[in-house]
Amino acid sequence: MEINRKEIALKLFNEKYNCAQSILIAYSDLVNIDRKMALKIASGFGGGIARLGKTCGTINAAVMLLSLKYGEEEKEDIESKTKTREIIRKFMLDFGKIHKSISCADLLTEENDKTYVMHSEKCANIVEEVCDLLDKYLFLE
Fold it and tell me: In terms of Cα–Cα distance, which of 63, 69, 32, 61 is closest to 44?
């Protein structure tokens, strides 16, 4: 039976894990980190890094996952370093086709009142979109 990681990530998000934790935990087995470690690693990335509205936690989690999957294990491994950068760039370009920004505040700001709400339905939609992209990019090999 195939694991529906998007469903897992959304369930975790709805249980009040932050967006980065939800994604990192849902995919952690693919990069050989356990749930507890994924929870700790991603704990500061929710809300655009410590709720500062900076880079969206889903993006941070995706970059961590892609780096763990494809990144170099030795500094001399230029091939893996180049491949990882290329994959992450493509991922980011695909995200950019959906959204104009990777900033949590920009992604969540309502145009009519210029405020944003974290851990909202918009966040859940972004969790879904990033999972869809990760499903594409984590299974390239």
Answer: 61
